[in-house]
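User: Could you write out the 3D structure of this protein bound to zinc ion? I've included everything you need below.
Assistant: Certainly. Input first, then the structure.
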Amino acid sequence: MQTLTSPVHAPSPFTNSTQTEPRRGPGFVRRALAFSTTLVGVLLPVAGLVMAIILSCVWGFSWVNVGLLIGMYAVTMLGITAGFHRLFTHRSFQTIAPIRFVLGALGSMAFQGSLVTWVGLHRKHHKYSDSEGDPHSPHDDDGAAMGLIRGFWHAHIGWAFAPMPDDIARYAGDLRRSRSARVLDALFPLWALVGLLIPSAIGFACLGWRGAISGLLWGGLARVFLAHHVTWCVNSVCHLWGSRPYASGDESRNNALVGVLALGEGWHNNHHAFPSSARHGLRWWQLDLSYWFIRTLVACRLAWAVRLPTAHELAVRGEQPAPLPV
Ligand SMILES: [Zn+2]
Ligand SMILES: [Zn+2]
């Protein structure tokens, strides 16, 4: 399978200036901005979830809110899993331009950063997985456990409180040369806002003004909370707990619970062993809804060039031959 292009590493403009930099120079501003942005991004969905529960207790249960939560979760998570991850990061299948654009917009609605940044970070994660340079490993630079709680927190979201590594954009040169990807990336704040307005508008159409507010909370902020933590579990849980059927050279694990909730992304050892594969759930029982989505696109002749591991690649990584039938 195709391998990712090797990125070039740029030295950080801040690493060589510690002796001459004033205590509150550009580095301080950069760190403060990253910290406060991430803090708001983490806490706002929590506040939205709490408000959603309180208002549901006051106004009563509504299936409209359940539908908006599940529906918005499904489409925006597919934007991340099938779009940002399997299409844009790993190029594990090809599709027509309108679907590529819609998947990019839906992924942006998940509030996980803009397209180019997300792709750059994830490609860097694969290149240095669980070793020095990995942006969000729960293990230290030598691959040893850094302490369970500290490692879990760092891999889950703690890493995002620090400024973005300086070389991230270099990992996504192909996207920076693509006009549609640049437009998707630049309009990230707009997509994020649209992702809140859509459930609010549907809620208003169904239930009036109360529906608009509860739609914003359940289909918007509570959905972002759920998608955040499920996605972050791929980085934390799936590098700590689960099975390792393949020799992937890192600590990635297959975790069934995350596999189901993250639409197939929790079969993470499979994914690290075969990063370009469009299919992460390689066994029939490993539910991978994102691959089902890709297969549906193929059946409708809207996707092609779907990449899967060959028998030789499976054998190299430790696949055992299927047992002979009795
Ligand atoms: Zn990983
Ligand atoms: Zn990946």
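The longest strand covers residues 94-95.
User: Perfect, thank you.
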